[in-house]
UniProtKB/TrEMBL annotation:
It comes from Methylobacterium indicum. Residues 3-92 form the ABM domain. PROSITE patterns: ABM. Pfam families: ABM (PF03992). GO terms for molecular function: monooxygenase activity. This is Antibiotic biosynthesis monooxygenase. Keywords: Monooxygenase, Oxidoreductase. It comes from the Bacteria.
Length: 98
């Protein structure tokens, strides 16, 4: 069964371009992973510092134990304290199959 992640970001002023550059590189790389299903980045139309990332993966354990530790994520993870004005809000969701 797939798993969905909703990740909310609030950026520091002046960090939008760097945030997008780093995240785009991660998203381009993760699209080649076997357990990747989909990802969409959403921007708040009223606040240029707010973003929501919606990711779908095949396996939660793979995401936690393998995907989050991929080398292509290092620069992204290292930059987060400089990019974000507050901690990411991460929600985990599972599809309901009636």
């Amino acid at each position: 069964m797939s798993i969905a992640y909703l990740v909310g970001f609030r950026l520091r002023d002046g960090q939008r371009e760097r945030f997008l550059d780093l995240l785009t590189a991660v998203m381009d790389a993760m699209r080649h992973e076997a357990t990747y299903r989909a990802a969409t980045l959403h921007a708040d139309p009223d606040d240029p510092t707010r973003f929501l990332l919606h990711e779908i993966w095949a396996d939660h354990d793979d995401v936690v134990n393998v995907q989050l530790h991929r080398p292509y994520r290092r620069a992204w993870h290292a930059a987060l304290p400089e990019l974000l004005r507050e901690e990411r809000r991460i929600e985990v969701w599972r599809p309901v199959e009636p």
